[in-house]
Write a structure and sequence with these properties.
The chain has 4 helices and 6 strands, in the order H-H-H-E-E-E-E-E-E-H. It is an alpha+beta fold. The chain has a 5-stranded mixed β-barrel. Strand 4 and strand 5 form a beta hairpin. It is globular.
């Protein structure tokens, strides 16, 4: 039995041709902001430059005619900023608390060269207030994929400003 398993294993290992390229590991980061994702100092700087930082779930993505992309997101956790300033309707708790439920907002991106975000993914948005209207924000940089490392760096930068 062991000899048969060994022979099958040898055939299985030979099934891959020598000229086939191995697949690169897939990392869940955006191609547009890899330098921000991996550079701790740059991520802290961008966090301090933004007015509102929050994690959100992406519900819709639309491409505009003028080179913009519009995201409709549901805010899950606010890391920086008071969203009462932009008129967010909060159904549970207050806008200053860290937890939101069903607070929907629109975020506008100026760069359409980046690939669009997948729907129903959790993303970190670093934004500033848009001049016109309520419930609209503009991105400082393209959204970051939600990772524990990024959250820790952003929370440390925000706590450093508060103290």
């Amino acid at each position: 039995m062991a000899l048969g398993s060994l022979i099958l294993l040898m055939f299985a290992l030979d099934a891959l041709a020598a000229d086939a390229e191995p697949r690169a590991p897939h990392h869940a980061t955006s191609a547009c902001n890899t330098s921000v994702t991996y550079n701790k100092v740059l991520l802290k700087h961008v966090t301090l430059a933004s007015n509102y930082v929050f994690t959100a779930k992406v519900f819709a993505v639309k491409s505009g005619y003028n080179g913009t992309r519009l995201y409709k997101v549901n805010i899950r956790r606010v890391l920086k900023g008071d969203l009462n300033d932009i008129g967010v309707l909060v159904r549970f708790g207050t806008a200053k608390c860290l937890r939101f439920s069903d607070a929907t907002i629109f975020v506008e991106s100026s760069s359409i060269t980046c690939p669009p975000l997948r729907l129903r993914t959790y993303i970190i948005f670093l934004t500033e207030k848009r001049r016109g209207g309520t419930l609209w924000l503009s991105l400082v940089i393209e959204p970051l994929v939600l990772t524990l490392r990024s959250i820790r760096i952003i929370e440390a930068a925000v706590k450093g400003v508060r103290q």
